[in-house]
Amino acid sequence: GGGGGAVWGREPAAGVRRRLLPGEDVNLVLDRNINYTNSCITGCELCAMHRPMGSGEGYLLSQEEIFSKIEETIELGGTGIMMQGGLHPKLGIAYYEDLFGAIKERFDITIHSLSPPEIYHIAKVSRLSLEETFARLRAAGLDSLPGGGAEILVNEVRRRLSPKKIDADTWLAVMRSAHEAGLKSTATMMFGSVESPADRVEHLHRVRELQDETGGFRAFIPWTFQEANTGLEGTSSSSGIDYLMTLAVSRIYLDNVPSIQASWVTQGLKVAQVALMFGANDMGSTMIEENVVAAAGVNYRVGKEELVAAIRAAGRRPVQRDHAYNHLDYP
Q1: Is the model's pTM score more than 0.85?
Q2: What is the C-alpha to C-alpha distance for residues 165 and 236, in angstroms, rounded to an integer?
Q3: Which long-range contacts (CB under 8 A, 24 or more apart) does 228-235 make?
Q4: In 3-state terms, the chain is what percent helix, strand and coil (to 5)?
Q5: Per-residue pLDDT averaged across 55-74, rounded?
Q6: N- or C-end of the chain: fewer Cβ atoms within 10 A?
Q7: HSE (side-chain half, CA atoms, 13 Å) at 54
Q8: How many Å apart are CA 331 and CA 183, to the nearest integer?
Q9: What are phi and psi of 112, to 5 degrees?
């Protein structure tokens, strides 16, 4: 309480935010999620979007389709794309080198793409080390990494949610390798499924440890599990109060990570506004396109104007940023 949510020691989350980031700026970014394939070999219980190979419901976007989505993104004022997809068994590093190179030839846009499970899969399929994989992807045009696939960084939980996906140590190893290659990233936590409060703390602890080592995380994004249409449908999802408490604890515990992002995509805009009083300083993306959470039956949609108005209504100052967290404009 006290305008800052949870308290760790004597300083509330809002106080930590003010100490780390003085002023009233709240960031937002205009970008697009491009889910280039839904074909996936892992079949995670928590995912409503994936389709197994040979199901007849899988897709792989053509370069022309991806270019069209990027053109529309730029027309709408977008500055980046976040490409993520399933672990497709036939996509090696040459596919991504060709695609990223073609994008950079045609467009002035940030490629903030490929989660650690995808990177590890690309390296495995291509028989490359993580270091070689990152060197080649960076040369092709990859700018930074999203923090997807983290779920909860506790292997007992991961075995229940995504038994075929990389384990906690491997997720962290991929991020360490990315940071060592000069690529910054974000980190996420998907909570409210089968984990315990102690598991959430362990997740925060492991993110904090790696950040102490590399300094490569630009932001932390806690978001709640969406159960509809998944293999875990019927399990209890996190409440708004639980979300705000977890976000506040994240801001307090991760005082070595610059930004904490509110998840309007899973919580809706009103709870995201409240999150600004619980330590969040970033509203994330306008999500010109979003398919993974939508596949789980959650379809909050907002545009730039709505995000800007919501930030102002919360008594804060909106500022458009890019994926490197440079301020571009005060809309």
Answers
A1: yes
A2: 23
A3: 228/48, 228/296, 228/297, 228/298, 229/48, 229/295, 229/296, 229/297, 230/45, 230/46, 230/47, 230/48, 230/296, 231/44, 231/45, 231/46, 232/45, 232/46, 232/161, 232/193, 232/194, 235/193, 235/194
A4: 40, 20, 40
A5: 87
A6: N
A7: 2
A8: 29
A9: -105, 90
Contact 259, 229 (CB under 8 A): no
Is the torsion defined by CA of 305, 306, 308, 312 positive or negative?
positive
Handedness of CA 178, 34, 80, 283 (dihedral sign): negative
pLDDT of residue 296: 40
Identity of the residue numbered 228: A
State the DSSP code for 278.
Answer: G
Beta bridge partners of 8: 11
List of residues 6+ apart from 167 with CB closer than 8 A: 155, 158
Which band of pLDDT confidence, cut at 50, 70 and 90, is reported for residue 89?
A: confident
At 63, which amino acid appears?
Q
Q: Tens of pLDDT along 22-57?
A: 999 999 999 999 988 876 756 555 555 555 555 566
Task: Report the side by side order of strands in the sheet with 217-224.
Answer: 144-145, 184-191, 217-224, 259-260
Q: Which residue has the tokens 């980190």?
A: 187
